[in-house]
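Anyone up for a design puzzle?
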């Protein structure tokens, strides 16, 4: 698997991000937001989560 060898805190962030982004996508899509806006919102959140993981790896 891709997560083998990763620290547990990074795994936790990744799982939380997956669940959160999926729910956010479904919520925005279900209320009728334009697909491009939904994807942009999810991408912005994902970049923030990637930044957080990168910052934690740098500190270690």
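Challenge accepted. My sequence:
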């Amino acid at each position: 698997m891709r997560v083998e060898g990763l620290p547990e805190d990074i795994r936790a962030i990744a799982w939380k991000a997956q669940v959160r982004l999926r729910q956010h996508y479904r919520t925005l899509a279900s209320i009728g937001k334009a697909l491009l806006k939904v994807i942009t919102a999810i991408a912005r959140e994902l970049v923030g989560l990637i930044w957080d993981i990168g910052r934690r790896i740098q500190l270690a």
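A detail worth pointing out: Residues 12 and 18 are 10 Å apart (CA to CA).
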